[in-house]
Amino acid sequence: MVGGKTVKFTIPKDEHMSSGHLACQGCGAALAMRYALKAMGPKTIFAVPACCWSVIDGPFPYSCLGVPLFHTAFETAASCAAGIAGAMQYFKRNDINVVAWGGDGGTADIGIQALSGAAERGDNILYVCYDNEAYMNTGVQRSSSTPYGAVTTTTPGKHWKRVAKKNLVDIMVAHNIPYTATASVGFPEDLIKKVQKALTYKGCKYIQIYAPCPPGWRSANEKTIELARLAVDTCIFPSYEVIEGRYVISRKMREPKPVEQYLMMQGRFRHLSAEEVANIQQQVNKRWKKLLFLEEATAKLAEME
């Protein structure tokens, strides 16, 4: 009861992550884990490669998580998770969620071969990439998930990144896995529902969670949620699902907000000229139209089946 009224909670109240973690203030990756664990519950095992979460979890033998966590080599999160899933199958523990949890560097770059293998084999795991768009744990180096226009320590000053962000969601969809989705820490209810839905499918599933990083993005700690929501509402990072090949947009705006609102809140983009911002807007519009087309086209295909 709140104020004499019955309130229905839309987010599970159980907590499986303690406050004694080592994340930076405003860390989107910490929020991503907290929300995801609310959806997964205590019967979960994680395989985590070298990434921010190798540190956030706490120094051995301590852990801020109430579930088992295996620290793995940078390139082996998916293959380690596949091995754990095989063990769970052998012992007939079908009630255990096996999750590989990596950053974008360990997913889109260093770990993509293990992830691709797990997807091709149909290993019964959920792979979650918390996407903060650079190698944040080791000093904000550029990854293939770093967006066009961003400054990092390996693309500094006038040498900002001049190629587009790798579309790992499309790569995973091309593997014909049963469930792929994007989510943002700015919309926790949507994130939790997608994790819950992913766990209902057998085989390899993939979710990419947008997780702002204040130090790496040169943004204010208290602006993490605003940035995470703006990324979706500007269509920089649209929120959608691909369910057995069918595209379903989770949050559809009649008039998306201009990308400039999102870009100018971050120091990593403040060097961009008006012309470059307009170019980014044009590319975002193009990708959004493609996504709208895919949603309509795959819905018609589903009706024909």
Radius of gyration: 19 Å
Name the helicity range.
25-40%
Structural class by SSE content: alpha/beta
What distance separates the N and C termini?
A: 47 Å
Q: Flag low-confidence runs.
A: none
Q: How is the biggest beta sheet arranged?
A: 8 strands, mixed
How many separate domains?
1
**What name does CATH use for the topology?**
Rossmann fold
Characteristics:
305 residues, eight-stranded mixed beta sheet, 8 strands
Mind explaining what this structure looks like?
Helix 2 links the parallel strand 1 and strand 2. It contains 11 helices and 8 strands. The longest helix has 31 residues. It has an 8-stranded mixed β-sheet, sandwiched between helices. With 305 residues, the protein is an alpha/beta fold. Helix 3 runs parallel beside helix 5. The protein is globular and about 60 Å long. It has a single domain, classed as Rossmann fold (3-Layer(aba) Sandwich).
